Amino acid sequence: MIGKASVRGAALLAVAAVVLAGCGDSGSDNSSGGQSGALEGRGPIKFATGKDTSGNMQKLVDEWNTKHADQKVTITELPESADDQRDAMVRNAQAKSKEFTILNLDVVWTAEFAANQWVVQLPQDQFDLDNFLEPAVNTAKYRDKLYAVPVYSDGGLLYYRKDLLTAAGITAAPKTWDEMQQDCAKVKALPGNAGLGCYAGQFDKYEGLTCNFSEAVQSAGGSVLDDSGKPTVNTQEAKDGLSFLADGLKSGEIPQAAVTYEEEDGRRAFQDGQLIFHRNWPYVYAKASATDGSSKVNGKFDISPLPGKSGPGVSTLGGHNFAISAFAENKATALDFIKFFTSQESEKSNLLATSQAPTRANLYDDPALVKQFPYLATLKESILNAVPRPQAVKYNEVTAAIQEAAYSAMNGKSSVDDALKDLQSKLEDLTAQ
Ligand code: GLC
Which of the residues 172, 253, 292, 323 could staple to 148 if both were Cys, CB 3.0 to 4.6 A apart? Predict the structure, then answer.
């Protein structure tokens, strides 16, 4: 199942790129940055990114600044939500502002930023891309050219309270949704556990919901787009996937509060001990393992692949890539800083501090790292088999349609069948453009 998903993911990516990539593309070859010498200028730069949740980004920037007094990097921290980060970066680009030099782009924004020439093409031969995970590198390319460098990857994981499962006599993490529901019932039947939430992911109406919806559909054996890029959400599999989420909210297995959850909200609920199962990205491992009193579940939880309808589920491919704004000065400094930040040493330091998934493949096999993060093999497998979201220039419209459908069905504003019928026709219009 996992292998099939991987093949389908790669095909989907390629086809979606062809079907959707043309929209809004000026057609010109934004290659100025690719020619040697074109990335010019050295001096101070600003680096726009989502929240530096561990402080390690600042630590690496400090390390760089100590060695580059006249090329200092300053972090501009953007809001927590992926959508708000994109808005800030799009505004910066539309104003042709010099403010942001390096952009920490979500993997789904490459096509839009490259096609609009908001970021410059990068010299591929200056990066040892063969040492990076291939799915991550693919997210940094547009029309086969490199516009960003993968900094960390992301795959959805199931965090679960091993202590509670053990107390209920359960010896292994659930592989299916049914097993997960049965495990919840057993745990909640124990004294003091009745108020626990069974499961939550990211169900607020934003990019995280697109990831969770896609995972639910894929984990029921379906897809959002098929191998030829055609929308496939009006199917039994997609209905099964969305019903898993909508029914969970109706029955209370998914706590009502979860419809407002983005990554950090769910992470806090899990580490405060309110949830038995939680879908989130790898960064939660370090936060929930904190021994400073901030996590109530330190040493009490474990990680497993996402469950699915009749076997293991299939994750959505997430992650972040660094790109250089077309309107910025000091692009040579920016290029060097990206090389520094994506080096073996920096990625290792990032993994140790944040538990974010490295994009350099060999770190997953480093014995010292495997000792500290025993789930690294599971994580690598989850990323290699994860399904990418469509590489569309108008991805914003695609994701808005998905969020609308998923949110309205999950919140009882429309039936699962109606929501998916409507989504199918919206996606058909968008992919036909
Ligand atoms: C994480 C992922 C990113 C995804 C986002 C959704 O940041 O890396 O790809 O779009 O979460 O909230």
Answer: 323
